[in-house]
Amino acid sequence: MSRESLLRVENVSKAFGGVLALSAVDLEVHAGDIVGIIGPNGSGKTTLVNAITGFIKVDHGRVSFKGREITNWKPHKIADMGLTRTFQVMRPYFSLPAFKNLIVPLFSRRARRTGGWRGGGKMGSRDTVAVDILEEIGFERDSYVPYKVASSLPTGYLKRLELARCLALRPELVICDEVFSGLSMSEMASMVPLIEKLQMEGITLIMVEHRLRELFRLANRVVVLNFGCKIAEGTAEEVMGHKEVKEAYFGSEEVLSYV
Amino acid sequence: MTMSVEKGDRRKERLDRGIKVRTDGVYAISSWIEITYLVLPRMALIVGLLALPLVLTHFPYWQRVVSIIGIYALLAIGFDFLANFVGLVSLGGGLYIGVGAYIAALLNSEFGLPTYVTVPAATVLGGALCTMILFPCLPLRGVYFAIVSLMYPLLAGRVIEALNIFGGTDGIIGLDGFSSGWVEQYLLIACVLVALFVLRRMVTEDVGLVFRGVKDNDQAVRASAINITTYKALGVFIAAALGCLGGACLAHIYMWAGISQFALDFSIIPIAATVVGGGGTLVGAVIGCVILVPISEVLRDFGTLRIAVYALILTGFIVFKSEGIMTYATRKYEQTERWVEI
Amino acid sequence: MDIFIYGIINSASLVLMALGFTLVYGVSRLPNFAHGALYVLTGYITWLLLNRVGLSYPLSMAISLAATGLIGAAMYQFILVRVRGMAISEIIASYAIGLAILEGLRWGGLKGGTFTLPPFVEGSTLLFGVSVDYQRLIVVVAGVVLVSLLWLFVSGTKLGLGLKGMAQDEQAAMTLGIDSDRMAVVAMAVGSMLAGAAALVLLPLANIIVETGYNVLIMAVAVCIVGGLGSWNGAILAAFIIGFAQILTVVFLGAHYQVVVALIAIIITLIMRPSGLFGRQKELEERV
Lengths: 259, 342, 288
Prior knowledge:
The structure holds three protein chains of three kinds. Chain A has two domains: 1-82 and 173-187 and 203-259, Rossmann fold (3-Layer(aba) Sandwich); 86-171, no CATH class. Chain A contains eleven helices and ten strands. By secondary structure, chain A is of the alpha/beta class. Chain A has helices at 45-52, 75-80, 103-106, 109-114, 126-136, 155-167, 185-200, 212-218, 236-240, 243-250, 253-258, and strands at residues 5-16, 19-30, 34-38, 60-65, 68-69, 83-85, 173-177, 204-208, 221-226, 229-234. The termini of chain A are far apart. Chain B is mainly alpha-helical. Chain B is globular, with a radius of gyration of 21 Å. Chain C has helices at 2-28, 35-53, 57-79, 87-108, 134-156, 158-168, 170-175, 180-202, 210-227, 232-252, 258-272; strands at residues 124-127, 130-133. In chain C, helix 5 crosses helix 6. Chain C has a two-stranded antiparallel sheet. Chain C contains eleven helices and two strands; from the N terminus they run H-H-H-H-E-E-H-H-H-H-H-H-H. Chains in contact: A-B, A-C, B-C.
């Protein structure tokens, strides 16, 4: 089964003043993949996500999605095509019920076209669709969790809410920016099946992560960034055996020998 | 919902009043007291505004003041909406008044269209025109919008004077007036009430959430496949149209349109009224006008000192982060406070 | 030739007007809408000291400059610092203060009669065959001097470097130990004094009227928008562009078209390159 290339990042570079945040980064993501992007802090992971999704203009290079060039497009147009992302720092409407946080994405043209996740064709009332989406990702309807005020929800639920914001657009590709960060072990245990479920629904995922153990269980390919350059790519085992990757995280061999 | 304010060893605790809680659900209609609690403030506003011209039947000067209050109220509602619900500060209210006035004046004097055509036309056309000239700053930081909105009315007056177009410094004279004083006042009061209700409805609906997102968290709104600029433009159009409506009415009230309609009064009073009346409530802006405009009329002899004083009051309110009248009144109406020992 | 000379003079005037505004915005991201008010205020205080108190001209100028600097600093320290960070409130507060000062002056100071400040040096001279007032030459000289002094201050002194650091990146500067509030006060004080200096040099060319305050604010803002908010070089370049454009308009179209130039410059900038010539304000999308 040959899988078409969904997202192609070619030779992308971005400098902020004197700092080269991204340097000739290449990336290709096929439909149905879960691609992990890892690297130490400051390696350019979030900058890459911003560049792909239009929040930052690139200096060089191309980004294409579904065969169309989307380099430097505005973020809402990119999201309209089905390429969505989550944010590391979430700012939901804290004083509103959880499901109200999905109203804004359901308001978009894409949501109206696609009926939101779970809707088929014409969308029903936004409130109903919002609650349905939340139920699908684990907000227990019996306990009225979707109706709880967002400020009362723990991190695990807020992370899911952020994912739901993307899902409301019925995306083809979701870039998850550190969705595992800040989760307790039990929250992790329920988040991993959710990601697997999304993959089975046909959504392609790119996951920027620090928590490598869980990521490696999910991702079929891993890309490693360091100082804005791609230093390795392959399966999890291939990548973790890579000398440069180990040096990036732990330092050079001499240092390790003292550890 | 409770809120508390810390102060030393004691803490101020705010609790919803019993009657507020009881009126939250549908059972509110089962008791007259509860129905009154809900309906009274709203009826007081509507009846109060509608009765105002009647009460002042024997004081034609004050009836005129009521119309002026209406015009400022339209501007103030627009300002409150733009600033507190969409996140754009519109410093030059005079722009909308002037554009509306001139459009109505031109339609009336050049094409002879009657007032019931010029006023709606000026509202829509003026709103569109103002939105167009403010459009380039919408994708930029909010500061740009504030600066440009301040510049346009200042420049417009000078350009008209310099190029001697649209009547130059004399303005356009000899416009039709409204058919009677009653029409004048009730038209404006009706517009204010309609604007209040429509906007309040809008901000509580889903659209309001989108606007709030545009104001507070525009990155997330962009990531949700929504074009921020479109919504900002929509917000500007609404505020501009309200202001142009006021301007068109003003032109027909005084039967004249001139440069002074780009003036500073129209900048400072809506802002001061919003801040004094309670920002973010829309009604507060109207209340603020009801208070500030008559005082301004009475102090007309003191010339521009009024503006200076209003500006200082405004600064005081902002600096001391005062709530504003409506916010204070709503809080008192809905919640009780007490000190609690920690 | 006279176009060239008057163009330079006009551009220098615009540079003087815009310098204070762009300094304050560059350092603390605060649009000082009271800029025009401080301009007129300085002139008025000088006039009072000169004509009512009977001090000498140089002494009056020095005192009024200091007073304006203090007023600017006080404005920040007591009013603006409390609304720091709340963009909407900052804008409204600085606008209200400016309005209060200008309208207060219109009511209780600059009324009933004409107010003028005498030129530093009376008379005129011939420059390349063009007759130029000495005062106008002083305007150009003052422009060059102030820009150079400012450049030296910002590059050479510790305080100035602190301002420059704040302008580039406020948070990075704070991590280096630069006190953001103190720098903002200094910026306001210096910016106000620059406005005052511009007033002292330019007001002798005309009467002191309140309208000038608004005109100065308009021109300063126009120059800064075209040059890019926060960019000193941009402001200077924009001042020259607008300055020469205005003179050319006067010569070929008529004197009353001058103000239209400012409006058109702003509109063109907003349409074609909204962040200005050297604007460091990236468009919203560039924020992460």
